[in-house]
Amino acid sequence: MSEGDSSGESIHGKPSVIAGFFTRLGQIYQSWLDKSTPFSAVRWAVTLILTAIYMIRVYILQGWYIVTYALGIYHLNLFIAFLSPKVDPSLLDDPDEGPSLPTKQNEEFRPFIRRLPEFKFWHSATKGIVIAMICTFFEAFNVPVFWPILVMYFIMLFCITMKRQIKHMIKYRYLPFTHGKRTYRGKEDTGKTFAS
Prior knowledge:
With 196 residues, the chain is mainly α. Helices cover 54% and strands 0% of the residues. 6% of the residues are buried.
């Protein structure tokens, strides 16, 4: 074994203190992510609060518009992936091949399988906001630009992209949102038992 191995081991073959620290930090981070999984409303509320803090910071500093534009484009790409099916029907040779998409509210329940699941969408969006916030602390990212042009270009890009996505949904007749399996109510259980 060579000294200074790239796998984070020290000279004596034991894991280095730095590698152990980052491993432990990663485990704690993953543990918090796992605990937050069922609380989607709380997760998204925290992300919206972070977004508001970021926007207020950009407004007060009057800069970092390129970073904000890049963040908007990143979030737009995430949103499109969130609305898109995992298997794109336009890429299939046979339309009946692959999982079918839900097309009506009253037919058999078929969940919409997304290209980007909700949790990964939230996680990536939140990471993007945190990275953009960190960028606002470095003057190198404050590129001077006329921001109204960026806003107009982003609005144009958003409209064109969403129009294409909606046309795709209409053409292949799928709904990107399902509200769960339809439930049927039987007779009410009164809790009474009959003695034999």
